[in-house]
Amino acid sequence: MSMPFYVSPEQLMKDRADFARKGIARGRSVVVVQYADGVLFVSENPSQALHKVSEIYDRIAFAAVGRYNEFENLRIAGVRLADMRGYAYDRRDVTGRGLANAYAQTLGTIFSSGGEKPYEVEIFVAEIGDVPADDQIYRLTYDGQVADEHGYAVMGGAADTVASYLEDHYSEGADLSEALRTAVAALGHTADDKGHTADRVIPEEDLEVAVLDRTRAQARKFSRIRPVRISELLGDRGPAEASPETPGDGDPGPVPSDAGRDDPADPTDQESGATPPLEDPTTGEPPTAPPIAP
User: Fold this and answer.
1) Whole-prediction pTM
2) How many CA atoms lie within 13 A of 79 on its CB side?
3) What's the rounded Cα separation, in Å, for the pair 186 and 166?
């Protein structure tokens, strides 16, 4: 009789945590910044279909990094929970704190379960109040831990490098334009393995920007900012430079410029090549197959 394979609980939890952290680090960072009129979300996201920042309810927004299919399931569950609670009780009973607690229970249960892999996600849940002092930002990690953030916060990708830039340049009570410029500059601030830093200008079309704006007249305070408006807010920043492709967040990664093409001059290319003509341009006869070697 074979002995069952044994792993200590401490080692098992460490392995699961390392697995989740590596998956999250492969994505691009998301920055959340409090400004004078609400909360700003900024991420480098070239995809126009796979959003990392979304609305949950009237005053609540959701942002995530990691595996898209996993945090999209969490977003949908949050929308359903908020709608049910608002319908059964009152819209004022739907709070960011209650939603963050629900997410924490879900992520903690999945992480502790031995029957499935942990979610490779980190999420922000933000809620704005009537005054800046009432704004709330919660950060939830892959294992269900909840942290209450103030001012600014970063998750995913090179979070430490981006956070260090924000620590030096963030100013409380800034307007939307200044907050956006600071957040975008932080996302473009990179560091290599040797600690050398460089600043990159991210194209407006590669930015996903959204706000919870308390000055909006309607009950729903969430709004996306389009590239034209982003360009107006950022002003002249110099020539833009796209980021090196990093597969993650549902991003399939770089596609080579010659993908799907065949080299007719390559004798090793046996699948296809230059398409032969249907008939000889001189005689008008169809091409003759070469003789088969004995």
Assistant:
1) 0.78
2) 11
3) 6
pLDDT digits (tens, 9 = 90+) for 154-193: 999 889 999 999 999 999 989 999 999 999 999 998 877 6
* Residue of 220, 78, 251 whose CA lies nearest to 156: 251
Q: Report the relative pairing of strands 38-44 and 60-66 from DSSP bridges.
A: unpaired
Q: Tokens at residue 293, please?
A: 């070697």
Return the HEC string of the chain: CCCCCCCCHHHHHHHHHHHHHHHHHCCCCEEEEEECCEEEEEEECCCCCCCCEEEEECCEEEEEEECHHHHHHHHHHHHHHHHHHHHHCCHHHCCHHHHHHHHHHHHHHHHHCCCCCCCCEEEEEEECCCCHHHCEEEEECCCCCEEEECCEEEECCCHHHHHHHHHHHCCCCCCHHHHHHHHHHHHCEEECCCCCEEECCCCHHHEEEEEEECCCCCCCCEEEECHHHHHHHHCCCCCCCCCCCCCECCECCCCCCCCCCCCCCCCCCCCCCCCCCCCCCCCCCCCCCCCCCC
